[in-house]
């Protein structure tokens, strides 16, 4: 019986109602016949009852929210979260080591990049901070780059394959670099030759906070799709010297980033030869945070189609589809949408499902899925050409 069980939630709500009353009755009975002391005890009992009521009510609310969003489906996943610096995806978190100092900005102006304040363990590569100005999108934002072991101090990453790494809604790119622990997961795979040395490019996805752009170009607004599909790849090839976009480029993401990753592979296969969506979705998730996107999609059926990954794969399939779609029955945010996607693309080649039991919608789940995901994406990336 896990934390999402209806019985557990009902018990928590029941305790919120019953415990304060029981405390009040016990205090009243034990303090009978004591005059002033009785009144003080009763007052203290009322205060304790109010505090307990609030604590238990909040606990019940937290359990309901956890059930609806699928953060922690098991008690073990909840316990693991206590050791996670940033366990949530869909909740805004403070940037971890992200705010750049005047000295770091000066380094970027002088040599083009600065080492991140938070680095992986020695031998697991190096994180670099860049500030990128996109010509086509008109967007200027941070891009974090991971240089693999053996290339920490190289002037560039000449000829290396590329993995784009895209975070979720409201998760700044600084948390993408540190909370995912990309370096700690990728470096051992490289040392054991399970994957070739590669460069991870982590662009800011949330370029117009608090608005959620859903990786879509808004008429007259932020050009989020152009930023990811055009500007950052062009910058990476020119600045980092990586291999030309194509079969040796891949893109992965989770939650909102999972949608972006699937969309980029389906719509831009000439740039991203493979993709992976970890507990993501496959069409724009329109809500109050997406501004006018709902009305924009209603007025522009062509944009609506281009934003639907299943439609793209059915009607404009890549020459070679290589898409990994990971979800979990325990994840209320992605499971049903992923199943719908599998149904809409049934019979189409190149779509690989990855079902994980008891995976909450958290960085913990995505870290655990990362080795298998990278092995899938980089299987053929070591070959030249």
From TrEMBL:
The keyword Thylakoid does not apply. Coiled coil: none annotated. It comes from Arsenicicoccus bolidensis. SUPFAM superfamilies: alpha/beta-Hydrolases. Keywords: Membrane, Transmembrane, Transmembrane helix. The keyword Nucleotide-binding does not apply. InterPro entries: AB_hydrolase_fold, Esterase-like, Mycobacterial_A85_antigen. PANTHER family: DIACYLGLYCEROL ACYLTRANSFERASE_MYCOLYLTRANSFERASE AG85A (PTHR48098:SF1), ENTEROCHELIN ESTERASE-RELATED (PTHR48098). The chain crosses the membrane at residues 6-28, 40-65. This is Esterase family protein.
């Amino acid at each position: 019986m896990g934390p999402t069980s209806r019985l557990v939630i009902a018990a928590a709500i029941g305790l919120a109602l019953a415990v304060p009353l029981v405390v009040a009755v016990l205090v009243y009975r034990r303090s009978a016949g004591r005059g002033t002391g009785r009144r003080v005890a009763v007052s203290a009992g009322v205060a304790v009852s109010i505090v307990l009521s609030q604590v238990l009510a909040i606990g019940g609310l937290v359990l309901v929210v956890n059930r609806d969003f699928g953060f922690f489906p098991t008690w073990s996943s909840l316990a693991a979260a206590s050791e996670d610096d940033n366990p949530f995806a869909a909740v805004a978190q403070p940037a971890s080591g992200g705010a750049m100092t005047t000295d770091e900005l000066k380094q970027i102006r002088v040599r083009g990049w600065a080492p991140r304040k938070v680095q992986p363990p020695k031998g697991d590569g190096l994180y670099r901070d860049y500030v990128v100005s996109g010509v086509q999108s008109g967007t200027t934002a941070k891009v974090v780059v991971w240089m693999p072991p053996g290339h920490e101090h190289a002037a560039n990453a000449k000829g290396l394959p590329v993995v784009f790494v895209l975070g979720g809604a409201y998760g700044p790119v600084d948390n993408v670099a540190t909370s995912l622990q990309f370096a700690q997961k990728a470096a051992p795979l490289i040392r054991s030759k399970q994957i070739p040395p590669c460069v991870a490019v982590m662009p800011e996805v949330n370029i117009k906070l608090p608005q959620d752009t859903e990786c879509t170009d808004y008429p007259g607004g932020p050009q989020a799709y152009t930023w990811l599909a055009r500007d950052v790849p062009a910058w990476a090839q020119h600045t980092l010297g990586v291999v030309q976009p194509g079969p040796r480029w891949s893109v992965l993401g989770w939650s909102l980033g999972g949608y972006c990753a699937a969309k980029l592979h389906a719509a831009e296969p000439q740039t991203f030869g493979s993709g992976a969506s970890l507990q993501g979705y496959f069409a724009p998730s329109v809500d109050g945070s997406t501004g006018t996107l709902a009305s924009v999609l209603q007025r522009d059926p062509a944009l609506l189609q281009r934003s639907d990954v299943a439609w793209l794969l059915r009607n404009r399939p890549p020459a070679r589809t290589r898409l990994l779609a990971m979800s979990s029955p325990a994840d209320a945010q992605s499971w049903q949408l992923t199943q719908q996607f599998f149904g809409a693309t049934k019979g189409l080649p190149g779509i690989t499902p990855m079902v994980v039991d008891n995976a909450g919608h958290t960085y913990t789940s995505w870290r655990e899925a990362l080795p298998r995901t990278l092995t899938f994406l980089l299987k053929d990336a070591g070959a030249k050409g």
